[in-house]
Structure formats: structure tokens, C-alpha cells
Structures
1.
Amino acid sequence: MKTARADKPGNEIEMRAPEIDRLVKEYMVVLTAERAASEHTVRAYQRELLSFATFLAKRCGPGVSPMQIEHPVIREYLGTLYEKDLSKPSVARALAAIRSWFGWLARKGHIDQNPAKLVATPKLPKHLPRVPGVEQVNQVLDGIGSSKPQEKTGETAWPERDRVILELLYGCGIRNAELVGLNLEDIQWGNECLLVRGKGRKERYVPLGDAAAEAIRVYLPLRAKKLAEAKRPSEALLLNARLRGNGRLTTRSVGRIVKHLALAHGLAADVHPHTLRHAFGTHMLEEGADLRAIQEILGHARLSTTQRYTHLTTGQVAAVYDRTHPRAKA
């Protein structure tokens, strides 16, 4: 999928308006330091805003300031993105970055109001995530460690750790980045929960189920043995097989492990760590869990986000209606 990009780095500074360029850089600092945005978000916003800044310099001249930019100019910029064959989601991401930047400018007093609010977000197709069923997930979890030794290579050669990965992703519904960020001390055995650090450095406690707890208990002695043999400490719960770097497993490695295990046990090729997070929310909702409880566990700021992570079939909705509404049946 294509994304909006600025021109070649060597030409960017000459083509961008100095005031716009300065304010974009200031906003990048705010995103990183004050809002604790992820590296991925910062990179994406910077890319989109630099592209927009380059457009403004060409369209309005190098002396353009934020006060001069009105919503028709923003719409015109989005039109140039469509001309480059960018998809609607890519254009929507560009608009989100621009809208966020103008919102910050308004709060800081650089402009009177946010002109990007008057620009409608492209209508996106609603794609429900394909979520494996309970039986399918159990099939993968039960199959870990059943492969022949010669079939195991790299990260997949540590089945005890790999079981912990899947049990925590599916059993606790945590994000990939939250998973690899877990430290040994974050396991609250007495309270049967995990201390999870989510987006924006927000912390929350997530229940630790029996299956996940048992998987961790099996894995911990092997983890301790590996560190002892290497004569090095690590606070990370999940280690990479060769203790590269600081020993902590990376999100990319987790993605490879999940995909390998999914394919090895009959799941679709597009399964990734976030698929298990979707499955967590969907399966809990199917079993009657309260949506707000799921929201709390998943760490969503808005209930609408949780609703996108969880979906019910028409039959399930009808069944809930028949079971709960006093006027459903005569």
C-alpha cells in the first residue's frame, strides 16, 4: 500500500517554508517527549507533515504561514495524493496527521482555529478482521512443541517461550509492543495479573489466566538457565534465542514466531500478533463479557475502538436480543 511521501531529502529543506518547517519540527518534539507517541507514529506523522509542507511551499510560496492556510488548500493537497494513486486509508492517515498538527497549532495560539476540521475524512470500507475460532486457537496452543526437532530453527526452537508468547497475546489480549516490553517484575503472582505499559506510557493491570501462568512457570527455569550460561542478566521476560543485544525479544521476531506457528498448525497466512488480540476480544464478547470490561483489559481510551476489535455475526446479535430483551418473544 502506498503512503504519502515528501520529495527527495536533498530538496526538502529548500522547498519548504521556513516557518512551516520550524513548527513541524516543534510538533515532532511534542509527539516524542510530551505525548510519548511510538516511534512508528512519529515517523509516520513526520513523513506526512513534511510532504504537506513541501506542497504548501510550492502552492503558496516559501513565505506561507499557518494562519494563511484554509481548508480548501488542505482539500487540494489531498487531491494530489489521490492523483498519486494513494488509497483512501493512506489519504486518511495523511489527513489525521495534518489535523493533529493544526490542532496543536491552535492550542499554542499560532492559529485561531483548526482548518482541517472542515475537511471530511475519506469514507473507508469497513473490513472486519478475520478472527480464528476458539478451537483453531486451541489447536495451535496445544500443538506447540509437537514439531520434530529438525524442523525447528531460530526463534521457533524454543517452544516453552513460544507458548508464553501465544498465551499472553491471546489469553491477556495485550499488544505486541506491550508483550516484548514486559519485565520479569511485571508479573504480579499474588494478584494474578500483569502490569502492562500501553500507548502513551499508560499503565494498566491485566488478569493473568491459569494457562498463561502455567506456561510462564514452565518457561522461567529455562530462561534462568540460559542467562546463567551466558553469565549476563536481563530484566526482560521474553528473551531472544541467542541473547542478541540486550536479550529482549523484538516485535518483529514475535511476528515471525506467530506466523510460523499459525501456518504450522493450519491457520491462515495472514495471522499476526494483533490477530490474537482481536480473537481475545471477540471470544470474550461471544461468551457474554461486558464490552466495557473488555475495553479496560485491552487498554482502549474509547469504547468505539473496542467495538471495532470485537464483532458478532447477525445470528449472535439475534440470539442476544432474544435472550435479553423483554419484548423479543410473545
2.
Amino acid sequence: MEARFLQENQPQVYAQLKKSIKHGRIAHAYLFEGDKGTGKHEASIWLAKRLFCTNAQGDEDPCNTCSNCQRITQGEHPDVLLIEPDGQTIKVDQIRQLQEEFTKSGFEGRRKIFILSQAEKMNTSAANSLLKFLEEPVGNFLAILETESVGRILPTIQSRCQMIHFSPLSKEILQKKLQDEGLSKETSRLLSYLTNSYHKAVEISQNEWFNETKDAVVRWLDYLLKKDPQAFIFVQKRLLSQAKEKSQQIEVFSLLLFYLQEERDRLLMQGSWGKEINRAIESALQAQKKLQANVAFQGVAEQFCVKIIYGDPRQPEKRV
């Protein structure tokens, strides 16, 4: 369960937490920071289970079979509380309710644990209330804050927590996890190129716009590689309506870059130099930068077509 995920994906975090437990050096507050899907919540649950497990000793993993472990898995343990955003934010009333709960002694033991999911979504009042709680702790408790954006956590809160960084998943691990979910090898490679978050990759793969745009970009690239002027018409008839928002337009060139690199790798495996593909990749990167600088998408895409089909007039071919 959680232990296996951490062993495979966050071995340093796993080893650090086990060492802390073995030597009795558990902090009173942790800040788990890293991208979505990197194992922050798995680590929170693993730590809670290990501290309440009635069978584990030393640096052993929680058993996952005792009453405490099972109730934590099911979210039903009275001394392990999970706080999540109420709508778009974590509100001050949620923190106050937590404080009231923690003024009581643990229902079944001396320790209470609370896990604050998406801690960066605390509003100002909630953050200040939590800070006071951490500065003036009541009873024996462990606080675990999970965040994808540590910069949005008050520095004063950060200073009162032991920060643990969760590294992005390696592309190889992410690809394997996605293939295990039934995605094709090519799609898994594409998604691991676009994101290093497993949950984000799954979300993207299920997005209708993404799948339609991926097919459109493959068709556009086919015109470009054949140096077919239909590429210009395709920009006007398909891509302009497909990518109306700036973020979508940038995504079009991200997809294009992936397929260009795939084509370059294919040529290299065949022993070809792929000089034109390298130029196309460079031009696609330049186009993406222009879009990020708010240059109009149609002009950028059509100029890219000119470079690929007719060559860059600023870089004339050298005569041998």
C-alpha cells in the first residue's frame, strides 16, 4: 500500500521517516511539499498508521491489518483528522473547530494527528489561526501540512514545521504506472513529457479537448513533414477553432514538440542525421516563446509553417 508506493517513488522520504520513528525523533509539525501525485498524502497516511499501529515495532512498516490501521485507511479513526478545502479555501472556522477538538485528550491514546490537505488554500484568517495553534500547542499532537505550492504558505508557519520535499516522479516510473492503467506506450510517453504528476497525467488523458487536439497536431505535423501547403489551411480551419485560449495555443506547440522529438529519435535510430527536424524543433521552441509573449497564435503558427515548408529565409542553405 502506502509503504510500497513510497519505497518505489520517494525512497529518501521513506528512509527519513523510518529513521525518525526508529529513533523517536518525530517532529510536532511537518510540511510535505511537492507536486500533486508525488506521494505526500500516502506519506501522511503511512506515518499516521505507523504511529498508531499496534503490531509494528522499530522501523517496521504498519501492518495494515490491526484495527487502528484499518480505521485510518477508511478515514474513521477518531484521533486522525483530515481537513480539506471547503470549496475553494480552507476557512478559519475549520481551523477553530480543529483547535477545539485538540483541547480534548485523544479519545483512544495520548496523541492526535491532523492532516491539512492543500494547505496553500488556507485563507488569511485560517493561516493566522493555525500559526497561533502551532506557536501555542495544546496537548500531544502531530500536524502534517500537505502543499503543492510552498511559496503560498506563511514563512512563519514554514519555520515551525519540518519541511520534507517530495521529488517529481521519474519519467520511467510515470510511464510504467500509466501503461499499467491501460494507456498505450506512445500516450504514456506523451503524458510523461507534459507532466511529472501521475494524477495530472490521468486527468489529461481523460480530457476530451486534449485527445482531439492531439489528433489535430498529428495531422498538422503530417502536412508539415510532407511540406504540404495544406498546413496553412489546417491552421485556419482546424487549429484556430481548436485552440482559442492562450494556454491551449501553447499546449498545441508542446504537443508538436513532443512529436517532432519522437520523429528525430526515429531518424536517429535509422542512422539519419535529422538536420531539418532539429531546425523544426528550434523553430517550435521559438514559436512557443512568442505565444508566451502574447504574439497572436495565427501569425505564429503560419510563420512556423513558412519556416518548415519553405525554409527560414534568414538561414540560407550552404552551397557545397
3.
Amino acid sequence: MKKIIAIIIIAFLPGLVMAAGGGIHLDKANIDIRDQVSLQNGARTYFQYCSGCHSIQFMRYNRMGEDLGLSDAEIKSTMMFTTDKIGELIKVSMQKKDSERWFGTAPPDLSVISRSRGVDWLYSYLRGFYLDPSRPFGVNNTVFKDVGMPHALWELQGLMQPVYESYTDAAGNEKKKITGMEQATPGALSAEEYDDTVRNLVNFLSYVGEPVQVQREQLGVYVLIFLSILLVFVYLLKKEYWRDVH
């Protein structure tokens, strides 16, 4: 019995840890992994703004092109900056020692970031940068406090100024919390357009984290239909076996 309880605790531990993540509010990403146009736009955003530092080294260029409906020519002309082979894994040219010197730590690979953090976390994180002169890159983040990453999409969003609200904690100390954001400097996109851009990027990272998730979901539907039909025959067989007993 103790082993069973331990297994249940281990199975639900990741969810419990995420639920106890400090009460950070996360906005819903509302992505659609079946939206191929969204995936294509998200891929372009990744290669334009993220691929200089962050790899997705478990994904190949040609596999991505097949799934997203992009030709090899489109992939080579807009997304291949570090290699000339379409079958290569998607890596970065930045040396690890250089990234550690510039950022304090090597930027993480994003292959499974959507699965480890969750799409809502990513969506909120990429929309949560705000001006903070005390930080090395001049920005902080509402989701990831004291983040060591610069705001890579600031040209699109612009720079945001936090709106604070004062409150008194349980010990009677007066503190401030961020209740919103206001535009400090404009970006190339409107707020709605930027949200859509981030949503597409998160959608793409969700695809990268599990490229077969659409097929898996479709297969799951077929399995459930099969089990439902099988249940009818199993029930009739059970009645036949137990007819004389009852």
C-alpha cells in the first residue's frame, strides 16, 4: 500500500510543484497546433529573433518543413543561417563559453521548453517584460523575476512600464506589486498584433516539443472508438458466460 501511495505522489509531483509556483498569474495562450499558418509564422519569428541564442537541437530542418508545409527552398532562404544542409539538426552558432560570458549562463535549448514550462507560462513570459534599470539588460519579467535574458522581441512590442499598487503584508510592511503594464515606447506592432505574434511563436514551440501530438490525438480518438465498440462485445460475452449462473 505504501508503494502505491508513493507512486501516486511521484506521478502527481510535477503538477503539485507547478501549482505551488508562487501564485503567478498566467494568461491563456489559446494556441491551435493544427493551424499551419500560425506554425509557419511562429517558425519565422523563432528564426528571426530566437535562433541566434536558443537552439531546438532535437528538430531537423527538413522534418519541420514537411510538417509545416514549407518547401526546402523556403526553409533555406528564410530559416537556415548556421548550416547549408537541409537534414541538419537546428543548432546555434554561438559558442557556449561566449554565451556564458555575455549572459552569465548558456541560453537553454528550446526543444522541450513548452512541455517543461507549459504554453501558458511561455505566452505570459514573452509578454511580461518591463523596464527595470537595476537589471543588467534593463528589463525584468513578471513571470520570471530577475531574468537574465534581454527582451529579444522589444522591437515588436516596444518597452513597457510597470504599473504598481501599494499593499500591506501580514507583518504590517508596505510593499508594491505590479498590477499592469503601460506603453513606455511604441513598438512595430500593436498590442493585439504582438499578442498574435507571441501566440504563433508559442504554438511553434509547442509543436517542436511534440511534433506528433496531432497524430497522437487522432490515434487516441480511434483507440477510444475501438474500445467503445469492444466494450459492447465484451459485455454481451460476459452475459453469455454468466447466463446460467444468474
